[in-house]
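Project standup — Tuesday

K.O.: blocked on the structure for the chain from last sprint. Re-posting the sequence here as requested.
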Amino acid sequence: MTKRIIIIDDDAVAREATRQTLLQAGYDVSTFGAMSAGLQAIAQHPPDGVIFDMMMPGIDGLEACRRLRQNPDLALMKIIILSSRCFAQERELALTLGANAYLVKPIEPLELTRRVDETMCGVLKLAYWGVRGTLPVAGRRSLRFGGNTSCVALTLPDGRLVIFDAGSGIYELSRSLGASNTQRLDAMLLVSHPHWDHVNALPFFQPLYQAGNCIEMFVPEGSDQGAEAALLAQMGGVHFPITSREFAAQVRVRAISAGSFERRGLKVTSLALSHPGLCLGYRVDFGGASVCYVTDNELFKRAGNRAAEVYMDRLAEFVYGANILITDTTYSDEQYSRHVGWGHSGVSEVVELAVRGEVDALHLFHHDPSQSDDDIAAKQDQACILIKGRGAKVQCLAPCEGDSFEVKPNALPKFGKIAS
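H.V.: unblocked you, prediction finished:
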């Protein structure tokens, strides 16, 4: 079905240019030159989305957001602000008041279409920048899956970025953001735990040194030194020549324990994992789509082990119905038998978790540095065979560094208890 969009802009030239761009993209478009007339049209015949300028005579964009979000009948309507004003405070306030996206003029037609499509469809983008565990791996043995350690990024339709861990892969994410000339980054870093392979490339994340960026970091509490020291002490001058005092971005470090919190429609839930020290798994839910990031984590063999069975049930409830489960699959089953108690999982138990949790897709992650590309591919093959044998409808793969995926809301959300 063709989606209807209303454009409200007192600049006739900009209004017509936006209209033509979206018509060519397949949208049904109506335009208004005054906010009052546009709001009246929305009330009479609500569209799928509305695009308006921030600076309008009479009723400005912020007031329009406030009024529209007070109407429960318009809760599903997407609000996109397209403005020449690039102040971070206004963008933050607009998103807080209910805007789904804030785009800055001038914007190229292709980029406008892409951002409008993402916002209207509620598509999240998941990208892998590091998939290894323990140590980065270089050489011919890691050409396919890549050699960087843990870093995964989830881009929300409104442009916000959720980053899972800051292993060596975060440097590649930084390079990508620089190449795309990303402005005014609004990012959340969810650190699973401060072990070296999950935080050691944070000093190389260039957006930290750019004024206007806003980066909020969450670190499991429990360190004797505190969350901020656990994350940033590596920049104290002994291990790295630049200190955190050089950050130009607005940076906040927050201690976090198992529980949940929300940020402008984004829900983050965390759960303590089975790993030495305090380690958290994260579930991110936004607009009906969900991604679970569960590493580092040991799923012990359950045969005759009541505690392992109870933990499996708890974790399956945590990931239940997720679009994508990214989880620690460090070992093959044969390798795991030699590494029990090291805090990482083998293939069979990971498959059990995905099947019980009825996730749409299982992504194998955090590969042992001793494993070659062929070894990782063999783990994927083993997992697929086990899933097929269970008759489950779980897609399974081991993502490569640089891979990206669209995460779309479930058309039919899952309800009820986990499969036993």
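K.O.: great, moving the ticket to review. The chain has two domains: 4-121, 124-407. The domain at 4-121 is CATH 3.40.50.2300 (Rossmann fold).
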